[in-house]
Automatic annotation (TrEMBL):
Gene3D superfamilies: 1.10.530.10. It comes from Natronoglycomyces albus. This is Transglycosylase SLT domain-containing protein. GO terms for biological process: peptidoglycan catabolic process. CDD domains: Slt35-like. SUPFAM superfamilies: Lysozyme-like (SSF53955). Transmembrane segments: none annotated. Signal peptide: none annotated. Coiled coil: none annotated. One of its GO terms (molecular function) is peptidoglycan lytic transglycosylase activity. InterPro entries: Lysozyme-like_dom_sf (IPR023346), MltB-like (IPR043426).
Length: 303
């Protein structure tokens, strides 16, 4: 990533790539989980933010007990001996098959920095999403471009926002217990590379960055800034092609979702959310910045 570098801590991420096994995909979620997620994502008020369900708990819990300030006081399973990495041949890719994509009517890829410290003392809780009216189904649940366009005020490039939203939909099918929100992916993308635009770069219609994005310290790759060793373990092609590309926003976000959801995490649980983001880059200020940006995206997308 391009901010908050720590030459001692950052390489730990390469070993944390094995923090847990990726969850096996649940076929039962193909209908119920996907329908709920599709309706929520395309609803402007639905699935609006990670803070909509647990921000207050995260602030009141972690900060009150010094969790973020002292991560060693976190869940025991997040530290110490790490599980053995799962063999690539045994891990199901997070990408949808063509049949699943057609069933869910999800468009294929290519269709169509620093932060102020969050003032936790003045934080009074999250903005709650309005309940989804299931009797009024969304007409164009697959129109991610329209959904992203409706959130243009967030300042996220539309092509990147489409990738974040699509990764959430795919994650809801293959890791339904994870409850991953696009806001977390967008926050990581902002902190890591300003959504693929760092250094005057941009994302092309096919999802590739105009030029490869290489981190200044450890040769991190792409808009989500994967270490090469981490990408070798977790890199996933979003369209099911043979080779995953860390410089493609679709592949990078789906792979990040795969990593964050590993080990059966439920990201509505504050401990799981913290462990997931801390595992992505084990620096306390990094977790704070991702939290602050995700919280900001969630609240403003609700306006």
């Amino acid at each position: 990533m391009w901010t908050h570098k720590n030459p001692i801590v950052r390489p730990v991420t390469s070993s944390l790539q094995a923090i847990a096994r990726a969850s096996a995909a649940s076929g039962r979620a193909l209908t119920t989980g996907a329908q709920a997620t599709r309706a929520g994502l395309t609803s402007r008020a639905g699935r609006v933010s990670l803070q909509a369900t647990f921000t207050a708990a995260l602030v009141a819990g972690f900060l009150a007990i010094g969790h973020i300030l002292a991560p060693h006081s976190g869940p025991d399973w997040a530290y110490g001996d790490l599980p053995e990495p799962i063999e690539a041949s045994e891990r199901r890719a997070l990408a949808l098959t063509p049949e699943e994509a057609a069933y869910l009517d999800i468009p294929a890829p290519g269709s169509t920095g620093g932060f102020e410290e969050l003032n936790f003392d003045e934080f009074d809780g999250p903005t709650r999403a309005d309940p989804i009216d299931e009797s009024n189904p969304v007409d164009s649940v697959s129109d991610l471009d329209s959904w992203a366009s409706s959130l243009s005020s967030l300042g996220i490039p539309q092509r990147a926002l489409v990738a974040y939203g699509r990764a959430e939909l795919i994650s809801a099918v293959h890791n339904p217990q994870c409850n991953l929100s696009w806001t977390t992916l967008a926050a990581i993308g902002q902190v890591e590379s300003n959504h693929g635009t760092v250094g005057g770069n941009r994302i092309k219609p096919d999802g590739d960055t105009l030029r490869p994005i290489i981190g200044p310290d450890y040769d991190e790759e792409g808009p989500m800034q994967f270490l090469p060793s981490t990408w070798a373990e977790w890199g996933t092609s979003a369209d099911g092609s043979a080779e995953a590309n860390p410089h493609n926003i679709d592949d990078a976000t789906v792979s990040a979702a795969n990593f964050l959801c590993s080990g059966g995490r439920d990201l509505t649980d504050p401990a799981d959310w913290y462990a997931a983001v801390y595992g992505y880059n084990p620096i306390e200020t990094y977790v704070r910045n991702v939290f602050a940006r995700a919280d900001d995206y969630g609240q403003r997308s609700h306006q």
